[in-house]
Known about the structure:
By secondary structure, this protein is an alpha+beta fold. It has helices at residues 17-21, 27-30, 95-110, 126-134, and strands at residues 7-11, 46-53, 56-64, 78-86, 116-122, 138-146, 149-157.
Amino acid sequence: MDKINCIELKHFSDEYLETLSSFKLPEEQVKFTALPSKVLEVTEGQHRIIIVNNNVPVGFFLLHSTERVKEYSVNPKAMLLTALSVDHAHQGKGYAKQGMIVLRDFVKAEFPNCDEIVLAVNHKNVPAQQLYATVGFEDTGTRKSGPIGEQFVMKLSL
């Protein structure tokens, strides 16, 4: 359990670039998310967040405060979470869960105007649905059509 206690969320910096670029995912996961190497270029309002264990990047996701958020929430203070992944070599150790547990405090500290995080998860991606529900995300009842089928919109109130 010591490993999990060392999980932190950090903003992207170039020191993590090489490790993030080498992330790998099993084929069955690639269809549901984007590898960090595919989303390293961001626009204004997109924030690259690294899940770090003992200063080693083990996971990655994007937080959006762009117009895209309006597709998922009518809350003007909401942020959108996308592209969550944990490098295959680090999966099964609870890093995604711990990263999502500390997400609430991280967002409150780094984005004090945000009071809700929304995301869309594919209806076939049951492990991700369970992860999000375990850490407090709730199904909003809204459904979106995604590239590979229906997505459930979930939210976490801060």
